[in-house]
Amino acid sequence: MTEKRARKAFTGWHMTAILVAFFATVVAVNFTMARLAMSTFGGKVVENSYVASQQYNQLLARAEAQDRLGWTPSVTRDRDRRVRIDIRKDGEPLAGLSVGAMASHPLGRSAPLALRFAATEEGAWRSVEPLAEGRQRLDITIARGADEARYRIDLP
Predict the structure, then answer these.
(1) DSSP letter string, 64-110
(2) Distance between CA 132 and CA 2 in Å, rounded?
(3) What's the confidence (pLDDT) of residue 64?
(4) How far apart are the first and last CA of the chain?
(5) Widest Cα–Cα separation across the chain
(6) Mean pLDDT across the chain, nearest whole number?
(7) Looking at the 3D structure of the chain, how many domains does it have?
(8) Alpha carbons 21 and 42: distance in angstroms, whole number
(9) Is residue 116 part of a domain?
């Protein structure tokens, strides 16, 4: 027959070790997550929130005017890492536009890069400069005469 092993008694020292290990893990995880959060986001969205709030109505008026234009941009990145912007209104490509963009990493890991665009034969615009690999945020400005539209698009 097999012998049964005698169980050791669960003492206060065992419970103390379990509690210390549990709380040490919680504190270590919280410290790590706080450290990562602080290193990836500076916490500043606008320079001065009071000044930004004073311009809120102007921003709403500009957004309504942009919506009335009916321009629909489609943004992709090609194999050469160039940005391609296709702008349409009612399904038709628009001509006579001035297109520019500022590219930056969404979390500020790289310096912003101004992109210049050249028109393509298909009625789209292609960036002259290549875009860095990885996630990029594009702040695009499109103008035609007095009409102007601004778009913020994140590329994966």
Answers:
(1) HHHHHHTEEEEEEE-TTS-EEEEEEETTEE--S-EEEEEEE-TTS-S
(2) 68
(3) 94
(4) 65
(5) 96
(6) 89
(7) 2
(8) 33
(9) yes
Summarize pLDDT for 54-108 with one digit per residue, the tens. 999 998 999 999 999 999 989 999 888 999 999 999 888 888 899 999 998 877 7
pTM of the model: 0.65
- The secondary structure element, H or E, covering residue 14 is helix 12-40
Give the DSSP H or E segment for 40. helix 12-40
Residue 31 lies in a domain: yes
Name the percent of the chain in helix, strand, coil, to the closest 5.
30, 35, 35
The answer to whether position 75 is within a domain reads yes
Range of the domain at 113: 70-155
Q: Are residues 74 and 150 in the same domain?
A: yes
Tokens at 144, concatenated = 């035609």
| 125 Cβ contact list (under 8 Å, min separation 6) | 84, 85, 86, 87, 97, 99, 117, 118, 119
* Band (121; pLDDT cuts 50, 70, 90): confident
**Predicted local distance difference test score (pLDDT) of residue 2:** 61
Res 1 pLDDT > 80:
no
